[in-house]
Design a protein that fits this description.
Blueprint: E1 2-4, E2 12-16, H1 20-31, E3 36-40, H2 43-51, E4 58-62, H3 70-79, E5 86-91, H4 96-103, E6 107-110, H5 115-133
Parallel strand pairs: 2-3, 2-4, 4-5, 5-6
Antiparallel strand pairs: 1-3
């Protein structure tokens, strides 16, 4: 299920989240930054997108989901050689940061995600993209 935000942007974001309310809230926040948003309902769907050749600038990945957890998906995506994508682990669990970072996530943000955390990640990726285009 892909949802392209209004406006054109080269910022492609994958949201891996099984909770509809959480996905809708995060998507609305991302639309404020003109991101092109794709949803995966679990880790397996996220991995399958990469197996099909899809590329993303940022992945926001929940921890606990059916079929395949977020950290399992991060491990598999990194094992495919996907090192350029910024992976953000997110959860309300206390132990989630360590699990995500050891799986290969770049950073962890606690849920609910604050707008300033979201903005910080997006700005970092935008600046990185600008620097590699020069």
């Amino acid at each position: 299920m892909a949802s392209k935000a209004q406006g054109s942007s080269s910022m492609k974001v994958l949201v891996v989240e099984d909770n509809t309310v959480q996905w809708m809230v995060l998507s609305q926040k991302l639309r404020n930054y003109q991101c092109e948003i794709t949803l995966a309902m679990n880790g397996k769907e996220a991995v399958d997108l990469f197996l099909k050749g899809k590329k993303f600038d940022i992945i926001f990945c929940d921890k606990d989901m059916p079929i395949m957890t977020g950290p399992e998906a991060v491990l598999k995506i990194r094992a495919m050689g996907e090192t350029d994508v910024k992976i953000v682990g997110m959860s309300a669990d206390d132990d989630a940061m360590e699990v995500f970072i050891s799986a290969g996530a770049d950073i962890f943000v606690p849920k609910p995600i604050k707008v300033q955390d979201l903005e910080s990640v997006i700005k970092e990726v935008v600046n990185k993209k600008k620097n590699t285009m020069v």
